[in-house]
Amino acid sequence: MWHQPRVVGLGLLVGLVATGTDAEAQRKREIDLLVERTLVRPVVKTEAGFTATLLVPPGNLYDPLAMQPRDNGVWVADDGAQEGQRGGRIWSIDFKGRVSTLVETVRLLPTLSFDMAPATFGQFAGQLILFTQPRVGQLGIWENHLIQHLDLKGREAARPVCTLPNAGTNNGIPGAGLGARFGPPGSPFGDRFFAVTLNNSTVYQMTADGACKPFVTFAGPWTTPSNLAFLPDGSRMLTAVKSGRPGADSSSPVSGAILAIAPDGTIDPTPVVVMQGEGVWTIAVAPRTFGPYAGQIFFATRGGEGANGKIYRLAPDGRPHLVASGFFMPFGMTFANDALWVGDVQEDYIGGGVHWPDGFVVTIRRN
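Predicted structure:
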């Protein structure tokens, strides 16, 4: 994931000028501080009607981005970790919070999102479709991203389906990707894999024949999409968007919104919701089993530095209601096991150069 780098570990400079046993002691202190910082448990607070549990504390995951409920747990795409020119992992987390590796780094490029191809998706049926950077490191953020396919039954590395073509705004390069998923089976969005690139404000689509092309480009006040979901009946795509664009002055106020998109790419000019001063980053729609909140749109926002990320739900009256607060960068979100799962990257592995496993996963249940 990409973000402005932070200045960290300044105390390490002191160790460089110390000598002998003093230098060794200083280095040990700095390592201890880094470990302590990595393992700090976030404080997530919930509003009435909900309870939060820290399912996976910092110390395992780097950047838990995309989340997909599968089998007896949730699969998570993480763009952290690097081995030569390979990067990222896909984890499996069971309902008790136990983390295991589903796809190791040597088979991947930095993976931002993924989904399982349905049985109707031609030669790719039953394979993982991956949305990735073209290479490791910060340079890969701003280059044309890839869609790849991976057979979980094999051991070979992911293979390319396509390099996304230039389109849209801001020099047209489809970089700074984030969300991707298949449209609901049987819906007008079915049998299409959609992927979001922030840099050129475009959502792409891939079809079963391997063709990749732009689906919709955003212009006007909302020019930076980040993630997507679908209404329960599959009639509309919901896209998280923000004002401004990547690389803009970080001191400028950023607001967020959710836009509804028709199957032919037509954008509803009236946003589903607008959040002044808070960028909307990801969306999940509650399943019919989620009690009184069934069918409601849950979404994550972030309004600046620190632990000011929040989770909201959109009530039937069309107003956002706070669900939980205390997040840093809540970019992953899905429903599984009668709970809302939220993946927080906290500090950024690729864009920020923060190479320690400070990501975490919180589950939010209704009381």
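Summary: The longest strand covers residues 50-61.
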